[in-house]
Amino acid sequence: MNLTLKIWRQSNAKEQGKMVDYKIANVSPDMSFLEMLDVLNNELIEKGDDPVAFDHDCREGICGMCSLFINGEAHGPDRGITTCQLHMRKFKDGDTIYIEPFRAKAFPVIKDLVVDRTAFDKIQHAGGFISVNTSGNTQDANAIPVPKHDADRAFDAATCIGCGACVATCKNSSAMLFVSAKVSQFALLPQGKVEAADRVLNMVAEMDALGFGNCTNTGACEVECPKGISLENIARMNREYLKASLK
Amino acid sequence: MAKSALLKSSLAKKYWMALTGLFLCLFLVGHLAGNLQLIFGDASAFNEYALFMTTNPAVKVLSYVTYISILFHAIDGIVLTIQNKKARPIGYAKNNAAANSSFSSRNMAILGTLLLVFIVTHMANFWAKMHFAEMPLQKVEVKVEGQEPVLIYKTVQQQAIPVNAVEMGQLEVKGTQFFQPGTDLKVADGYKDLHKITVEFFKNEKTGLIATIAYVLAMVVLGFHLSHGFGSAFQSLGVNNPKYRGCIKGLSFIIAYVIPALFAIIPVYIHFFK
């Protein structure tokens, strides 16, 4: 396949970036999207150009490190996958592909397609944890009965890998799907109930302070989420927050 | 922190948006019930309803809640929209939003602004006239067998006041009230003829058709706004659960499609068939 790539190039956080066109030839449909970018970078390095910086780590869809807004969608046109799981067979010979970084005020660009997502870590630090006694007499988690239904929903919420596709996709750059998944995975379990009220209040306050937008329930995040995190989590967070604020 | 949480936080703004929005949906149901009398009732029924809506104390309280809801919903919406725009200073070169969200959900602010423009013109055309302007009083034709039909004013006290009695100066009209000439002895209260104003508005030779089309278009905008807004309000208030989803979807269909359609039929009926 021969492709035209339109890629966001920005040399550092302060510099103004722009879209730059690249031609790439002989792309195999069996390549992953990131392998295609690796090939492009090899060519750029051989020519003495600056390679395109992009985030990646495990390349098997579990680490949440890869990002990219491809042809107008977070993690590209396919559903339920991260960018590293996207294959070139999803594109046709002669296609033009737009590759942009995840865009949000709270996710500033570091270089090219790499954005700073430590805002998510800050939200986690604000309450995405449970306080457990680790002095050696910790209670066995299996000793606390959890209804299967709750355990399943908590697990579904916990599959969030914190990639930020929800923020990138949301027209308001809202982080509510991420925050609600983190609130839900604890709120549904007995171990998480102890700190539930403080957790939701503090995590939402941190999310607001970091400059993420407000949810308008477009549902785009749920569609683009590589892990299929449901909007029901946002509704649960809204309930938890209301309950906690009235306390 | 928890104290200000119900006023300032992102989630609180959503709660208020949802509550005011749902109240305005309820208002629409009541408003529609009254308007349908333009099709199914006569002029008297409609004018009696209009008088009730402008004078009943309970309705007055509700009407103030409605005005506040409209203002709050609009202001909250503007604040949210500005914050949301700020959250993404640099946009995408290509954004395929249609792949993951509905047209309505992405354009609530524009749809809402159009509705606000509609509400202001709508209130200027009808509400302001009913409340503040000099209005014609409703006249009814009474037929007695073997005699010429007589035009009388319809009154709250069910008194027959012949129109020519007023013309000949036997009675004096101040606002909506009939008095003995030169005194402050009130004889009866007339009905503001909102029915006539409404029918003439949509049947006007020059502007009636434009008014009818504009009204129908406004109802299309309302339909789009509610098709996202009604269900969205429940999500914001934390009610999204497979248990209730069917019920909310059904109600949403009625609120977003049936109600605006019924509203839109009324001016069309008046313009073309009345």
Give a structural overview.
The complex is a heterodimer of chains A (247) and B (274). Chain A is α+β, with helices and mostly antiparallel strands and 247 residues long. Chain A has two domains: 109 residues, Ubiquitin-like (UB roll) (Roll); 130 residues, Fumarate Reductase Iron-sulfur Protein, Chain B, domain 2 (Orthogonal Bundle), CATH 1.10.1060.10. In chain A, the strands form two sheets. A five-stranded mixed β-sheet of chain A has the order 2-1-5-3-4. Chain A has a two-stranded antiparallel sheet with strand order 6-7. In chain A, helix 7 packs across helix 9. The longest helix of chain A is centred in the C-terminal third of the chain and has 15 residues. Chain B is mostly helical and 274 residues long. Chain B folds into two domains: 203 residues, 3 helical TM bundles of succinate and fumarate reductases, CATH 1.20.1300.10; 51 residues, no CATH class. Helix content of chain B is 68%, strand content 7%. In chain B, strands 1-2-3 form a three-stranded antiparallel β-sheet. A three-stranded antiparallel β-sheet of chain B has the order 4-5-6, with no helix packed on it. In chain B, strand 5 and strand 6 form a beta hairpin. The longest helix of chain B has 32 residues. The radius of gyration of chain B is 24 Å and the shape is elongated. The interface between A and B is large, with 54 and 43 residues.
